[in-house]
Amino acid sequence: MLIKIYNENPNTREIDKVVSALQDGGIVIYPTDTLYAFGCDALNVRAVEKICNLKGINPEKSNLSIICNDLSIISEYAKVDTPTFKLMKRNLPGPFTFILPTTSSLPKIYKKKKTVGIRVPDNNIIREIVIRLGNPVLSTSIIDENDEIEYITNPELIHEKWQDFADIVIDGGIGGIEPSTVIDCSTGEHDIIRQGKGELKF
């Protein structure tokens, strides 16, 4: 199913359709402030495993990232010291992924790696979905090195490719091609391990 939602003013009825699919363990493809991404209810282990299997992600070796709607709920899922919180506050919402130690609120699938990526994108659609779902949403880009650029940026072509896997593809306009900048804050340092979109303000 392809659903059109506008970033400036997300339609509540359409958002609720997406939330209902996520509550049922569904997979959605949604826009962020960087790339289009696969997502599911981050606390639904079966749905998380389905996305990991598709992408060839081993949760024991790779960081899983979750989207929160704002900074107020981050401490529920990750341990944040004061300097890191201040850094996040200066840069979020924005195109950044902060890697932090996990807390006990996340399911076991996140705990073997002991860290989790935290995203608060500058995109109203996915943040509104997270608010109405009441849980964070797993986030991993749909990018495939073999894809032509249109198949990662054009929602209609994204839907054409992934309609058998994703329950819903959200058309939030043409997507970007640059991933988020990743900052590892898990050791108390703030190391940029991938420079992507956005310049981090220290």
UniProtKB/TrEMBL annotation:
Highest taxon of source: Bacteria
Gene Ontology MF term list: double-stranded RNA binding
Domain YrdC-like intervals: 12-198
Signal peptide stretch: none
Pfam families in the record: Sua5_yciO_yrdC (PF01300)
Protein's UniProt name: Sua5/YciO/YrdC/YwlC family protein
Originating organism: Fermentimonas caenicola
